[in-house]
Design a protein that fits this description.
IreB, single chain
Length: about 90
């Protein structure tokens, strides 16, 4: 067991037919249209796993449940880092 603590765990995402980027766009739009702060709501969902952070309007809640939270976080991180690298 001690030997296991000396290695970095590699996360291999499961390929999903539904792109996390598309889900985030659709959910963001639905939250905005309903008058919510989409950033706060999506962060709340990712941190807690509680689907009630996401509106059911336009099927957004059901859509976001089809993608693992770690995939959503990975997509957000990828976009953030890529946008920062482009500015450099």
């Amino acid at each position: 067991m001690n030997n296991e603590m000396n290695h970095t765990q590699i996360i291999k995402p499961v390929q999903n037919s539904l792109a996390a980027s598309e889900v985030l766009k659709e959910v963001y739009t639905a939250l905005t249209e309903k008058g919510y702060n989409p950033i706060n709501q999506i962060v709340g969902y990712i941190m807690s796993g509680d689907p009630t952070y996401i509106t059911s309007y336009k099927g957004a809640r059901s859509l976001i449940n089809k993608v693992e939270r770690d995939e959503l976080l990975e997509e957000l991180m990828r976009n953030y880092v890529e946008s920062k690298l482009k500015k450099s």
